[in-house]
UniProtKB/TrEMBL annotation, chain A:
Protein name: Formate dehydrogenase iron-sulfur subunit
Cellular compartment(s): Cell membrane
GO MF annotation, one: 4 iron, 4 sulfur cluster binding
Pfam families associated with the record: Fer4_11 (PF13247), Fer4_4 (PF12800), Form-deh_trans (PF09163)
Alphabetical GO biological process terms: cellular respiration; formate oxidation
Source organism of the structure: Billgrantia endophytica
Lineage: Bacteria, Pseudomonadati, Pseudomonadota, Gammaproteobacteria, Oceanospirillales
Entry binding sites for [4Fe-4S] cluster 3: 103, 106, 111, 146
List of residues binding [4Fe-4S] cluster 1: 41, 44, 47, 182
Keyword Lipid biosynthesis: no
Annotated [4Fe-4S] cluster 4 binding sites: 115, 136, 139, 142
Gene giving rise to this polypeptide: fdxH
Amino acid sequence: MRGGQINLQDIIARSATTVPSPQVRDGGIDPVTKLIDVSRCIGCKACQVACSEWNDLRDDVGECVGVYDNPLDLTPDSFQVMRFNEYENEQGNLEWLIRKDNCMHCAEPGCLEACPAPGAIVQYANGIVDFNSEHCIGCGYCVAGCPFDIPRISKKDSKAYKCTLCSDRVFHGLEPACVKSCPTGSIMFGTKEDMLDLAETRTNFLKSRGYENAGIYDPEGVGGTHVVYVLQHADKPEIYNDLPKDPRISPMVDAWKGVTKPLMSAAVGLAALTGFFHYVTAGPKEISAEDEEAVRADESSEEERQ
Amino acid sequence: MTNHWVDIRNADLILAMGGNPAEAHPVGFRWVMEAKEKNDARLVVVDPRFTRTAAVADYFAEIRTGTDIAFLGGLVNYLIETDRIHHDYVREYTDASLIVGEAFGFEDGLFTGYDETEGKYETDSWNYDYDDEGNALRDPTLQHPRCVFQLMREHYSRYTLDVVSSVCGTPRDKLQRVWEMAGETAVPGRTMTILYALGWTQHSIGSQIIRTAAIIQLLLGNMGMRGGGVNALRGHSNIQGLTDLGLLSDQLPGYLTLPDDDEQAYDDYILERARPPLVPDEVSYWRHYERFHVSLMKAWYGNSATAENDWCYDWLPKLSEKLYDILHTFERMSHGEITGYFCQGFNPLAAFPHKAKVTASLSRLKYLVVIDPLRTETAEFWKNHGEYNDVDPAGIGTEVFRLPTSSFAEEDGSIVNSSRWLQWFWRAAPPPGEARPDTAILAGIFLRLQRLYREEGGAFPDPVLNLHWPYRHPEEPSPEELAREYNGWALEDIVDEERNVICRAGEQVEDYGMLRADGGTACGCWIFAGCWTEDGNQMARRDNSDPYGTGQTLGWAWSWPVNRRILYNRASARPDGTPWAENKAVVWWNGQRWVGTDVPDFPVDSDPTAQLGPFLMNQTGRGQLFARDRLAEGPFPEHYEPFETPIASNPLHPHNPLAKHNPGARVFEQDRENFGTFEEFPHAATSYRLTEHFHYWTMHNRLNAIAQPEKFVEIGESLANELGIEKGDRVRVSSKRGHIDAVAVVTKRIRPLQVAGQTVHQVGIPLHWGFLGETKKSHLTNTLTPSVGDANTQTPEYKSFLVRVDKL
């Protein structure tokens, strides 16, 4: 995490951990929420680019497959994508529905639930669900556990990645990068209470403009989310490029928790063992001259400080 | 823009037509969203395609590209015939009541005075009737059969619902609905703003489309009002500044103009431009032309400019052609008439129409200088890039010089935005490597040329040797020095009518009212006077306080002219000086003077009883429904087909071939030969930008390349079905001038139109991508576009041409 300033005492839930999370810091923390008003989105992708810029991500230059969407799907290097859908409504009028797709930061996160690696996925008191990649073992269970199909495993380091809701920015009192970049005010950020208020105002506005089924997407099946949509057609979330109507954590995740956890723990052990054998057979990781240089520079600056 | 970005939020209706602001101006578009939310405004989009703007619109109507005059002419007809006009405004503030001379007429698509062999108009008959003192005759009842109002009414009576629907392909119910919504803003308390961009300018009839919009806003009383106006969303950062500083071939800074070659005498030049009022006592502000001109010459030539030598008038070029525009220049270049070409911040191979002609023309140069921060296709026009630029370098003798410049983020200065605001900015980083600011490069070239003239002599050396060059570092004038020069200063003490000194010698002038025609002031661009006064750099101000809550923020940066935010704002008040409507008030008469939320566009102490017209720059003091001789193709806009049209004739004048296309347009012979016909190229095409890219330079940037990596074209589902094309297929799009290959985006957003009894399919072609940069390599879109321009500006017709689509 950039800056590493997030206070570990703010973690309220931790994957694959039986030790209770810190309880003391319970005063004055409001859960945060990113509100995405789809009806105000022009699909400019400023949020997508801002996300890449803030998170130092540079995906591959892809190709056009006959749609505006690009990148086509989430990747380990693209934490969010814009999804475009041409929808003909009941009156036969065309609507171009453009949805920003990224981690929903569920109150009951399926990824965290499913994750077998202790501390690889954490939930902060403000509601942000964050991947602590240092502890990630790349097993992909978070992918299976996510009802929104968000996490992606990187081929570079076999670790899972997704939107952090700019936890590093938020902990320093800044809004997420996507929110800051949005030119039309389609993406907003604040406490969950305020955002739901705003969402209601927006919903009423849409109803006054003839969108009878306008509404708020904050699905109960995952305990509500910290990314909330205002939809013109809240009765049909699936028309927004398959936004799930009633997302729930897959029953497989619970089954796994009960039955296969010991097996998985063994697998973790196995992974460690594999690493050991890899070390024995392939030898230690080569350290480049540059790395050495960097380490020396670090050491010498440390000496200076002392 | 007559108004400004923030003011859009004050509108009740936003008509986005001839532009796609959400796509091309996403940041400014926030004010449209504010209007919708805070002012309960409706957004209407009229466009050949259902665009990103349409995605958030309240109403969308499709239109065939290039038929906007028919659409808007129909609206004029609708407003008049259903009596949805602002009567008092039209009578008092427009030229509706002025009587037009008997000689003027319009028949079968042509106005009087057409010279068929020359292909242009003699405009003498396009004028009012005058009394013996030179004042235009009036009929305030608007009943005189030859008053502007009645002539206009007759002219547009042909633009009925059926005719317009047949020309535009817009369904009747949609036309009706859009016209109704516009008509609702005829009441004083409601305003419509019109937002347009290159979708109006890049047609052979572009200027007249914008004129039609102006007529509508005058009829509705929406000019000079909060949330009103005709608003050009400029296409490039600082392109407004380019226009203001006169970087067009027939212009001088501040919309002063170069003389024609038959204006060899200085007095003739001034007399033609310092036009007197045509209605008694009106201001006709251009009559002060000489003040601005002489101050400009003093800025350019210093002590060399004297009354005795007519302020160096002989040193100014005299135009033998109306315009030395790009089409004209490349025509001459193609004939080998140009030796060298300097190409600064410009990528003609990619950006000019008919790439094959551009390549052939550049190949005939002796040398080409490209001044740019990036690799451009133009600088590599001679290089073989496979199928995307299939040339033979051995056959091209042009020597190319590349001079790297700093980019916008690497220099200080001001950028003029669409709102006419001059906003000072500061560089974020120094330029890399050997890159230098454009000013340093041009100064370097100038100083070397000057030295050569001094040492070796040459033809006509005076303008070069005597150019006033007072900069501290002559080899690199600073942005601050240039800005102070544009503002202007007094060369001697300036006194007012009561002989009070209002500006001492050496001081910066406060506004252009201080400029003098006797050589007492120097000013590089009169409309910028006030941007850098004795109080310092006004463009650097960042006070966004807004005491009236109207979004005027007079303390934010500086707006030309004189920090005024809404032009013609006197028209926001009734003739008696009270606002037409409280919710739209901009300025008003308080009994002693004009005051309000903005800098009044009026003599501040002119009592309303004097009845001066609010459109001060016009000789009539009024908004011009009748353009007189100011446009090439007529005083009233008329629909003409694009030079490449998918239908056989102009439905308004089916039997007059002279009135099929713009009769006033200039077409070079080799360009005419390169026009295609709808038999061979049946589909109407239009080109445009995408949000993800900016022309041809963001393809050098990885993040933009990721967001939109590969060339595509947009094809409606119906045409795709006909041709057996599925989304993602590769297709070839051909015009008479060449072809491009691209991925097909098959979409519901482009629908077939019923035009003049036939089905017309439109094809959308984004202009981005080329054979350089981080994106996938591709052909250049302007391989396809025709080399013909608007009859007044010569802006090429990028928006309407013919293509054929084939599946690869």
